[in-house]
Amino acid sequence: MSLRTSRPARAGQYAALLCYLVFLAFPFLWLISTAFKPAPELGSLHPTWIPEHPTLDNFRQAFDEQPLLRAAANSLIAALSAGVIAVVIATPMAYVMARHRSRLSTAATGWVVVSQAFPFVLLIIPLFLVLKYLHLINSLWGLIMVYVVWSLPFALWMLVGYVRAVPPELEEAAAVDGAGRLRILVSVTAPLLAPGIVATALFAFITAWNEFFFALVLLKTPEKQTLPVVLTHFLGAEGASDLGPLAAAAFLATLPSLVLFAVIQRRITGGMLAGAVKS
C-alpha cells in the first residue's frame, strides 16, 4: 500500500520539478533564440522558437558597438576578488561563531540574517560617502570593497552552518593525538569545510558578477564599467533597444556563471561525499 501511495507522490514531485525547470529555462532559451535571429525575424509578428535563418551578425554587432571584453574583464576582476576576500574573512569568523556559542554570537547571527533585508537604496549614500573619503570612487577596488561588504553577511551565515555540520569529536580526537589548534584547523576542519567554502565563494562570485546598481553609481568612466552596466548601452532613447545585439551580449554575459557552476558543482558533491567518508 505504501508503494502505491509513494509512486503518485513521487510522480507529482517530478512533475512539479519539471514545471519549475521549464519556468526557469524559458527566459534563457528565448534569449538564445533571440541572439541568433536576424533582424527581419526579430521584427516578425509571428515569432518562432527556432531561428529560421540563424546568424552571428548580432554577436559581431555587439562587439563592434560596445567594449564587451574590457567590461567582462572588469566584472571578472571584481567578482573573483570579492569572492576570495569574502571567503577569507568569513571562514575564521564562522568557525568562532559556530564553535564558541554565546549570546553575542547568537545576536551576531541574527543581525547577519536581518542585514540581508536592507535594500540597496538605504546603503548607497553612506557607502558613496565612505568611498569618496577614501578616494575610491570610480575604482574597481572601491567596488570590490562594496561587494565584499554586501556578500559577507550571507557568506558568514552559510559557513556557520557548514562548520556546525562538522562533528566536534573529530577535532577532539585530533587534539588527543597531540595535534595543535592550527594543525587541527588545517588538517581536519578545513578539508571537511571545502565544499561549503567553494559554495560560498560561488555565491559571492555570482552575486558580484550580476550586480548592477552599485556598479552604475560608483563607476563613472567607460573604462571601469562592468558588464551589466555596459549592457544598458544597447538601450536607446524612449525605451528603444537594439534587441539582437542586446540578446547576444546578455547571452555571453550569462555563460561564465553557468560554466563555473557546472564545473564546481561536481567538486562540491565530491567534497561532500569525501567528508561523509572521513566522518
What is the element layout, followed by pairings?
Elements: H1 2-35, H2 39-42, H3 57-65, H4 68-99, H5 103-115, H6 120-133, H7 140-165, H8 168-176, H9 181-210, H10 213-218, H11 227-231, H12 243-278
Helix pairs in contact: 1-12, 3-12, 4-7, 4-9, 5-7, 7-9, 8-9, 9-12
Task: Write a compact overview of the structure shown.
With 279 residues, this protein is mainly alpha-helical. The protein is built from 12 helices and no strands. The relative contact order is 0.13.
Write up what this structure looks like.
With 279 residues, the chain is mainly α. Helices cover 78% and strands 0% of the residues. The chain has helices at 2-35, 39-42, 57-65, 68-99, 103-115, 120-133, 140-165, 168-176, 181-210, 213-218, 227-231, 243-278. Helix 1 runs antiparallel to helix 12 (243-278).
Order of helices and strands: HHHHHHHHHHHH
Average of per-residue pLDDT values: 82
Rg: 23 Å
The rounded distance between the terminal residues' Cα atoms is: 37 Å
Structural class: mainly alpha
* Biggest β-sheet strands, sense, barrel: none
- By DSSP (H or I, 4+ residues per run), the number of helices equals 12
> What general outline do the C-alpha atoms trace?
globular
Strand content: under 5%
Runs in which pLDDT lies below 50 for 5 or more consecutive residues are: 270-279
- Quaternary structure annotation: single chain
What is the total tally of β strands? 0
> Fraction of residues in helices?
over 70%
